[in-house]
TrEMBL record:
One of its GO terms (molecular function) is 2 iron, 2 sulfur cluster binding. This is Rieske domain-containing protein. SUPFAM superfamilies: ISP domain. Residues 8-103 form the Rieske domain. Its cofactor is [2Fe-2S] cluster. Keywords: 2Fe-2S, Iron, Iron-sulfur, Metal-binding. It comes from marine metagenome. InterPro entries: Rieske_2Fe-2S (IPR017941), Rieske_2Fe-2S_sf (IPR036922).
């Protein structure tokens, strides 16, 4: 092997290449497979980007290189794949001079950040765990913050499930919450777990079409609050979502928006066994990570769940043989005065251990 200048790697004569079909050379840290095809020479990284099978052992037909392990196919000229599970393979420039073939071992430069973002999107769309795992590692290797993967998973999860926020988005948020307490390897694993749950939950679902905010008009928090609760009360999803989107769009504060949501969620008893409340909490935690500018799509994804949730007072188990719901309403009515009264009897309470024993 001879180097010309700083870069070019000698492959062999064109006749040698023609008779052998493929010659592997190394340069710049790459093993490069140089193929002869249709009177031309083409070079790609010898490592299949799917799982590393040597591409020199593949087959070239009609300009398409097929890897023999899982049959990923690549355009020999550009390295682009026809099978997104595999990713594009790096292609290298080849020149033929005086009957000798040379390859430039520096691959065509590409934006690595953009590349791993687009691979993560493919992984989420295909619900392909290998691509998701590689993309999490890839984004980390190019110095992206953990929020990059979190935002990508959020954007995907907000669009590709017509049921809106579900268990997977809560898992992704939990992964984000755990990151500060995990060591590096576990951080990547946690992010992968969150993302792969999002991909699985969205797989096969229809996309969600988001509702636009109202034209500029109402800005009073108490009116939005009233509207939202009344739409939820009658299970009117479009009205509730448009109201919430508008309230966010006109710039109501985070606490006004959370009042709206949590008031509507607690207007009835124990929605969906508490999941609705838990999901709303998680959505706000997610926004703490990725920023309030994502509030529109993130919070409106809760609306479907809030509107369609099972209200526990509708269940016979809450009504019979004892009407638990009426006891709850009674207790709730008594709560403000009990709290007020409690203010005057404030003491330090240190019976946590006794309570946990009882529980
Ligand atoms: S390793 Fe090449 S297709 Fe799987």
């Amino acid at each position: 092997m001879t180097l010309v200048g700083s870069k070019q790697v000698r492959v062999g004569t064109i006749d040698e290449l023609k008779s052998r079909g493929c010659i592997v050379v190394s340069g710049d840290g790459h093993a490069i497979a140089v193929f002869h095809h249709d009177r031309g020479a083409f070079a790609v990284d010898n490592r299949c980007p799917h799982m590393g099978f040597p591409l020199e052992k593949g087959t070239v037909r009609d300009g398409i290189l097929t890897c023999h392990w899982h049959h990923a196919r690549f355009d020999l000229c550009s390295g682009g794949t026809f099978d997104p599970f595999a990713d594009d393979v790096a292609a290298f420039n080849v020149t033929v001079s005086e009957g000798v073939v040379w390859v430039d071992p520096s691959p065509t430069p590409k934006d690595r950040v953009e590349h791993w973002h687009s691979r993560l999107k493919v992984g989420l769309e295909d619900n392909n765990r290998l691509i998701i795992a590689k993309s999490v590692l890839g984004l980390d290797s190019v110095g992206c913050e953990y929020t990059a993967a979190l935002k990508a998973g959020t954007n995907f999860g907000m669009i590709y499930s017509n049921e809106g926020w579900g268990q997977a988005m809560s898992i992704l948020t939990c992964a984000g919450n755990l990151l500060p307490d995990l060591d590096e390897g576990d951080r990547l694993l946690a992010m992968y777990q969150g993302l792969r749950h999002v991909a699985t939950e969205c797989a096969g679902k229809a996309p969600r079409f988001v509702v636009d905010p109202l034209p500029a008009g109402e800005t009073r928090p108490e009116i939005f609050n009233k509207w939202f609760r009344s739409f939820v009360e009658v299970r009117n999803e479009d009205g509730a979502e448009r109201c919430l989107r508008s309230a966010i769009d006109v710039g109501l504060s985070q606490s006004d928006i959370s009042d709206m949501l949590f008031a509507a969620i607690t207007d009835h008893i124990y929605l969906d066994s508490g999941h609705t409340l838990d999901f709303a909490n998680k959505a706000f935690e997610l926004l703490d990570h990725i920023g309030w500018d994502h509030a529109g799509p993130v919070l409106s994804s809760l609306v479907h769940g809030i509107v369609t949730a099972r209200r526990s007072e509708e269940l016979s188990s809450w009504r019979s043989p004892i009407d638990i719901s009426s006891l709850v309403w009674k207790a709730r009515k008594a709560l403000p005065s009990a709290l007020e009264e409690g203010q005057t009897r404030k003491v330090t309470w240190d019976k946590e251990d006794d309570l946990s024993d009882v529980i």
